[in-house]
Amino acid sequence: MDSQMRQPHDVDLRRSAGISPGAGDPLTPERFEALYRQLWPAVVDFLRFRIGPADALDVASDIFVRAWSARARYERARGEPESWLWGIARNAARDWYRGAAAPVELLSTHLAVDTGLTERGAEAEAMAQVAAAIAELEPLDQDIIALRFGGGLSHRDVGASVGLTEAATAVRLHRAIKRLRVALEGSQGT
User: Fold this and answer.
1) What is the 3-state secondary structure of 75-116?
2) What residues does each domain of the chain span?
């Protein structure tokens, strides 16, 4: 019955990654390579959003090295390979923050550089306000926002990555965005 409830895109993603919907064995090198090819761009985008462009490629490489080293311990019963890899990505981003020598300018500088906003002062200031508001959210909400908007994951995939249902993820995201709006409206009045 579970396989009947799956969205067609989930099955298609698993097939494109070389993983049959009913597979129960560990990730083979071929399956891992397909997963790598499928998720590399999204992982890099997630990291650019979460830690900035300067270290995103290095940390992304480290994520896939960690995953490759741990692939024999992957257990299908605990979740899909994509969710397992996103969990490694979230942990790697947290590890990066713990190891950062100086305080991290979460999003403002990174978004401004990535989108060319440094030349447009008002827009750069708005992005700095968004970054500051995101930094005030709970870490789980920051991860949900980064996975959804930085990594481009669906609510279902974000939920699987953070251990929530699709509905709970959508509700948390909605509430986090609502808190961001309130914070941003308050900052415009000052």
Assistant:
1) CHHHCCHHHHHHHHHHHHHHHHHHHCCCCCCCCHHHHHHHHC
2) 2-104+136-188
